[in-house]
Amino acid sequence: MAEAIALIDYGAGNLHSVYNALKAAGAEHVAVTDDPKLVRGARRIVLPGVGSFRACYEGLTSIPGMVDALEERVLGDRKPFLGICVGMQLLADRGLEHGTTPGLGWIPGEVQLIERTDPNIRVPHMGWNDVGLTPHHGDHELLEEGEAYFLHSYHFVPEDGLDVAAMTDHGGGIVAAVARHNIVGVQFHPEKSQAFGIDLMRRFLEWKPV
């Protein structure tokens, strides 16, 4: 089990579909786990997330030792990390859904409600939309441009634009992905994005960040 990909189980939903996507991408050993000891031995880590920022943060932090294990493996050992939807949003300093809730603080910024600047724009942002890489991440080994499936009412606003790896347009620019060293978070759902999502998962399995 020491070589397993750790898919973190903290009651945030979409575990089954993310597991299936990883297996479809060629992963041999995926451990759906809430065990910090296993996380400390994992070679890659995936943090999914569906629901509110507050509920996901409370679910994650309620597991004794889990945040410490994640920080040890991801920030300390720099193992490849992929956050999906709210799992990506939790990288921020704070989320503003149902009041202010702290995040992991791995990528400075906050998660804000999508503003409706156009009455024709619907919130939540739901459905297929383009993903375009930012110029400074145009050659990222993991991310590529294409069309992905989104479902969210809140979006990540990083403090440093250099942490923004990809954008989408929903009545204005919305961050579709963030990246810093061995950490990548995507707002869209790879597990619901058909071939585009499976290809991303396949690249994640092979990704060797510097």
Automatic annotation (TrEMBL):
It comes from the Bacteria. Pfam families: GATase (PF00117). The keyword Lyase applies. GO terms for molecular function: glutaminase activity; imidazoleglycerol-phosphate synthase activity; lyase activity. Residues 7-194 form the Glutamine amidotransferase domain. Keywords: Amino-acid biosynthesis, Cytoplasm, Glutamine amidotransferase, Histidine biosynthesis, Hydrolase, Lyase. GO terms for cellular component: cytoplasm. SUPFAM superfamilies: Class I glutamine amidotransferase-like. NCBIfam families: IMP_synth_hisH. This is Imidazole glycerol phosphate synthase subunit HisH. It comes from Aurantiacibacter zhengii.
